[in-house]
Design goal:
- Keywords: Phosphoprotein.
- It comes from Schinkia azotoformans LMG 9581.
- This is Sensory transduction protein.
- With 315 residues, the chain is an alpha/beta fold.
- Helix content is 61%, strand content 9%.
- The protein has two domains: 155 residues, Rossmann fold (3-Layer(aba) Sandwich), CATH 3.40.50; 146 residues, no CATH class.
- A five-stranded parallel β-sheet has the order 2-1-3-4-5, sandwiched between helices.
- Helix 2 links the parallel strand 1 and strand 2.
- The longest helix is centred in the middle third of the chain and has 30 residues.
Length: 315
C-alpha cells in the first residue's frame, strides 16, 4: 500500500507538472496584450485562451471559459481592474488574478491585495519580470493542484481525508517566520496573545485594549510574584521591537525586489504601506533613522488575529 501511494503521488505530481496554465488577458492597450501573449507563448509558460480590451467586455468570456489566471489592467474604461475582479468573484470565479498597472500607490496596492490579487506586473512591461511572476504563479497553482489530486485519490481508495492538526502557535510562527522575526524575543509574546484570543469563548474580530492583553499575558507568567505593570511594559517593548524588525526585513526585501512574494503579501496588510515605503527609501539612501518610523502594534496584532481565525475556519 505504501509503495502504491508513493507511485500514485509521483504520478499525480508529474501530471500536475505537465499542466499548462490557461491565461486570459484584459487590457485596453492592444500592444500590452500582444506583448504579454508573446511572452507567455514564446516562453512556453502556458496558453492564452482569450483577451478583452475592457473588464466589461471580458466578463462573459472569463465566466464561460474559466481560465486559471486572469492578467488584468488596473486602469480601464467602464470597469477598472478592481471592479472587474469584484464582479467575477461575486459570480463564483475561482481563478487567480495578476494585476497590471503603471500607477502604483499604497491605497491601490492595499485594495488590490484585499480583493485577491496575487501579484503585480508593472508597466512598461518587462519580459524578465513577467516571466518571473508567471513562473511563481504556476508553481503555486501546480502545487495546490497536485496536493488536491492526491487528496482526492486517497479519498477514493478509502483512506478518507488526511488532515494534520495545526496549532495556533504553529500558524502564528509560520507567519512570523515569513517576516523574518521568528527569532525575536517578542515573537513568544505575540504567540501568547493570539493563543489567548483564540481561546476565548466569545471570539470577536476586534481586539480588546492592548493594555488588557499585555496584562493578561503577564499574569500567565511562570512567576506568581511578577510585577504585572512592569511585565506588561516589557511585553509591549518586546513586541514593538519585533514589529520594527519585521518592517526592516520587509522593506529590505522590497528595496531589492518589489515583486518579492513576502513583501507583496505582508507589507500592505500588516503595516501602513507608506511607512514601509519610507523605510525602503531610507534603505536605498543608506540612512538609519528608525526612530522616525511609527509602529502600529494594534493593527499588526489585529490583522494577525483575523488571519489566524481564517486559517482555522478553513482547516
Amino acid at each position: 500500500m505504501e509503495l502504491f501511494l508513493k507511485l500514485k503521488s509521483q504520478q499525480l505530481f508529474c501530471e500536475s507538472e505537465c499542466l499548462k496554465l490557461r491565461y486570459f488577458i484584459v487590457d485596453d492597450d492592444r500592444a500590452s496584450r500582444m506583448m504579454l501573449k508573446n511572452i507567455i507563448t514564446e516562453g512556453d509558460l502556458g496558453v492564452v485562451i482569450g483577451e478583452a480590451e475592457s473588464g466589461s467586455k471580458g466578463l462573459k468570456s472569463i465566466i464561460t471559459m474559466h481560465p486559471d489566471v486572469v492578467l488584468i489592467d488596473f486602469l480601464m474604461p467602464e470597469l477598472d481592474g478592481i471592479e472587474t475582479i469584484e464582479y467575477l468573484k461575486k459570480e463564483g470565479f475561482k481563478g487567480l488574478f495578476i494585476m497590471i498597472s503603471q500607477v502604483v500607490n499604497k491605497d491601490m496596492v492595499a485594495e488590490a491585495y484585499e480583493k485577491g490579487v496575487e501579484f503585480f506586473i508593472n508597466k512598461p512591461i518587462n519580459r524578465v519580470e513577467v516571466q518571473s511572476i508567471l513562473k511563481r504563479t504556476a508553481e503555486q497553482y501546480k502545487l495546490k493542484d497536485s496536493l488536491q489530486a492526491i487528496q482526492e485519490s486517497l479519498t477514493k481508495i478509502g483512506l478518507g481525508t488526511i488532515k494534520r492538526k495545526v496549532t495556533v502557535k504553529e500558524t502564528v510562527l509560520s507567519i512570523l517566520n515569513d517576516m523574518g522575526v521568528i527569532g525575536e524575543a517578542g515573537s513568544d509574546d505575540i504567540v501568547a496573545i493570539i493563543e489567548f484570543l483564540m481561546n476565548q469563548t466569545d471570539k470577536t474580530a476586534q481586539l480588546p485594549p492592548l493594555k488588557d492583553l499585555y496584562e493578561a499575558i503577564a499574569m500567565k507568567g511562570e512567576s506568581a510574584n511578577v510585577d504585572i505593570a512592569k511585565e506588561s511594559k516589557a511585553i509591549e517593548q518586546r513586541i514593538r521591537r519585533t514589529i520594527q524588525a519585521a518592517i526592516n526585513n520587509l522593506a529590505s526585501l522590497g528595496a531589492i525586489d518589489y515583486t518579492n512574494p513576502e513583501f507583496e503579501y505582508y507589507a500592505p496588510r500588516y503595516f501602513d504601506f507608506q511607512e514601509v515605503r519610507n523605510h525602503m527609501i531610507m534603505i536605498e539612501e543608506g540612512r538609519n533613522d528608525q526612530a522616525k518610523y511609527k509602529i502600529n502594534i494594534r493593527k499588526f496584532l489585529q490583522v494577525l488575529y483575523v488571519e489566524t481565525m481564517k486559517k482555522f475556519s478553513h482547516s
